[in-house]
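Appendix B.2, paired examples.
Example (i):
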Amino acid sequence: MGIKLIASDMDGTFLRKDNMYNVERFAKLLVELNNRQIKFVAASGRQIRNLQELFQPVLDEGHQIDYVASNGAVVSTFDQKLYSVHLTPDELGKVIDWNAKNPESAENLIIMTGEETTYISNHATPEVAAQVKLFYPNVKQVEKLLAVDEKILEVTFVWPTDEVQHHVAKLREVFGNELHATGSGFGSVDILGHGVDKATGIQVLQDYYDVLDDEVMVFGDNGNDLEMLQKYTNAYVMPNASPFMLQSINKKALADNRADGVMNTIEDWLEKNG
């Protein structure tokens, strides 16, 4: 059975360390995928506007990319939003209240992602705000996060990278099945609505395009990719992934993100299945 949809995580997977990719090579790959009627999906913890800006060079050439953004909270084809899941005011209040009472949260950064704007506290330093803007468009600093008048897709806490899995486990223990906690690299721990992850987001696109699980190929490197990597047979973990990810997924991409491992692996598959 052939592949009809390829979904790739971005940071640490598709993108190099400089948050860039080989535009010319990717444009050629998209031509070949389109010729074979294979969809390419950017599946990321990033906001959809950030992903669209990232791929603007190939979009300007007329290529089409679909999106599973904000770790599955927003799903869109190249021109139509299909799905979005927001935290309820009650859920948002519980998350912020838990953080305020958690002794380990004293120095951490809180990021709230809406569909249009990203919110951080006024207490964040200019240096921290500048770092947030690398991954989130339209960042706004506010005095009170709970006073924000926009539906929120996810809440992100930022801790030291080596503490992420500890905090993910703790949050899952606290919120159980009510909310979904996941680690997405760079010290980020994301809180989303119940059942929201990249695998459920990809399923929305599968239903829209009538694609079976065996017709999906996925790439990832971190905890927020685990659900999709475990769901699909054609799943590739990056060689540069965290040790717990390398132990969880059998197949590895042909190279790491610095060496265009995702494109290498897709091109190799296309050549062998021409």
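Example (ii):
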Amino acid sequence: MDQYLAVFIEVVESKSFTRAAQKLHMTQPAVSQSIKSLEQKIGTKLIERNNKQLHVNKAGEIVYVIGKEIIAKYEQMEALVSELENEPSGNLKIGASYTIGEYLLPKIVKNLSKQFPQITPHILIGNTEEIGKKLLNHEIDVGLIEGNFKDETMNHLLFTTDEMYIIASGRKNLHRKGPIAPEELNDMTWLIREEGSGTRKITEHFLRKNNINPKQILIFGSTQIIKEAVEAGLGISLVSKWAIKKELKLGTVKQLPVMQTPVQRDFSIIKIRQEFETKAMKTFVDMVINHPYANK
């Protein structure tokens, strides 16, 4: 049954019998037979095909969602049993929001791989909203996010506090030693992240709290692109201290002494509440909490 479910899930996610067969290293007839066998066991059709288009019906949607949970539990069971007599090992699917994934996680994973080479990390980067949803959908085992993702099935564990600063191009004349009042940032172009980003939520809260009305708002899909746009003089932005260390040293951006900054926010570990956790998961969580970079 678990093999049939795995094939069905791949077909649904690939939206194609042919692509699913390629990913699973199976023939297309074998994939079709697996789906047929699953439908016979369930007692109803799960997939409708019209004009070569694949459509998952209501029964198929139910089997897909619950099937994902079954596969995840089965993999967890195998890992837990294997670990009874062994060191932490196996695959660990880690999701991280952009700032954490780009600036903190690489060093943590480097130490993880050095100390526990039998753990194989699989990294997925997205914004906070995307990482939270992937955890709920069992696409990752653990998430590291900026700010909050509220869901009663999750545990949140704070591992460090971030500081955010407003930056401008190193070539601009907006810099001075004295403090800048937030209202002086009115009528400026602000560069902000996309919807679902933890950084976006903090930026919007800062603008509302200080009654700042930007002349223009430009939206970007990553902090890296925002930094490059700031360097080019396109506008100003509120970004994490972790993201601008190199640029501040090079002088390509400047940190503005704006009153009510730095803005603080939490970096948290999120995971689904469950009775058992693999050694690999516990090891990774402990390493994130105790990592020296996370406390500086």
